[in-house]
Amino acid sequence: MQKVDQLLSEHNLSHHKSAIMDSFKSAIKLNKINKDETDIPVGSSKIGGSPDMPAGWEFPRYEDDYLTFMLQVNLSEAKPCDKDNLLPESGILYLFYEALEQPWGFEEDEGCFKVLYFDGDLGELERKESPSSRTEFVAFPAFQLSFETIVTLPESPEHLDFADDDDETNYFDFRQELVQPKDRDGKMVPAHYMLGAPLNIQDDVLEELFEDGKDPVLLFQIDSDEELADVMWGDSGMLYFCMEKEDLMEKRFDRVRFTLQCF
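and the corresponding structure tokens:
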């Protein structure tokens, strides 16, 4: 868990501690583990590499080629970090995206991503390389994934009143460092996570994708990441994959919505 008290003090926000903690949204951080893909068990959670899919499944296509495999999450591995009990107990979620052209998720980009769900015998899975004939963004380097419960914050908490512009700036800096800290070398750690509040770059992601009155959930947030073949979404951007809470409860992953935001 992040060092909340220390960060509040560093950003002169200790007087807002109660309101900030009341605004926390639990999320599941995706931590990359350096491991050769041959040593990652079939069916385990990973980002990059080749997906472990049932024998009868094919790579999803977009226009005249195949989507890039982004990640797979074995939900039984992630579930212990799901503090709000939103995810299915078992099964594997797969995420694919058109990583070469990087569509923005507009109406004309329909089909530019795919979320698949498998809840069967892991013994049916086999590792499948992409059938794409292109040379770029066919597959990213593979990393095994581990999971960690973190807290995130909305851009505009309902019960937090800022005294002045400095107070508001301090909050944004605090939120940034809380969700996207720097490592020992001073490099920003990619904010790959599930659930929680999206780290918006432009407009509010959930308001952009859903009408008022809906109850949306952030399924995946995938950050730009130099370890994934130095991939950058637009100009240091993020990919956001969201769905209505009711659809998540009913495992209707064909209803996921997507947008890309960047600086």
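(Above: one complete record from the training split.) The longest strand covers residues 143-152.
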